[in-house]
Amino acid sequence: MAKTRTRGLRATYSRVVSGASGRVLVVDDNKVIRHLIKVNLELEGFEVVTANDGVECLDIVRDVCPDVITLDVVMPRLDGFATAARLRADPRTRHLPLAIVSACTQYEVEAGIEAGVDAFLAKPFEPAELVRVVRRLIERKDRRERKGAPAGRGRG
Asked: Helix/strand/coil (H, E, C) string of the chain?
């Protein structure tokens, strides 16, 4: 296990798998949900780094260099929509694929689209669907990078 550090005193751990499918930054203020997402993605070969909220996500995103970011909507300090909007406003993170993992009400979907979110996964979710969404976003990102176009901004 390799230690990955998040801001503050808490460290998160990610199993570094040779030939990993990609790196995912999981952002959720609920420790149980964060761990559930992390474990399910690691079991499928992804490297996972976690953040407790949007502020922590923005603090670490450039150091972590994720292939995909999953965002909860309701979080303290900075919610998922504001985090997505800030990621889209920054040229260095503008094209990162973003997935909302939340209740996915009509309001959340509309606000997420407005903020530039690429995919939505409703809680409670099936682990297999989580993996499918993340894989689809990484594959889309890889295809666009091979073609020389930026990733992100599609709809998942």
From this structure: CEEEECCCCCEEEECCCCCCCCEEEEECCCHHHHHHHHHHHHHCCCEEEEECCHHHHHHHHHHHCCCEEEECCCCCCCCHHHHHHHHHHCCCCCCCCEEEEECCCHHHHHHHHHHCCCEEEECCCCHHHHHHHHHHHHHHHHHHHHHCCCCCCCCC
Per-residue model confidence (pLDDT) at position 143: 82
Question: Taking 90 as the threshold, does the pLDDT of residue 40 lie above it?
Answer: yes
Nearest Cα neighbor of 30 from 117, 109, 136, 123 is: 123
Write out pLDDT tens, residues 5-24: 444 434 444 444 445 589 99
Is the peptide bond between 124 and the residue preceding it cis, with omega within 30 degrees of 0?
yes
Inter-axis angle of helices 127-147 and 31-43, nearest 10: 70
Q: Report how far residue 72's alpha carbon sits from residue 127's, in angstroms, rounded to the nearest whole number.
A: 16
Angstrom distance (rounded) from CA 116 to CA 110: 10
- Quick: pLDDT tens for 98-129: 999 998 889 999 999 999 999 999 999 999 99
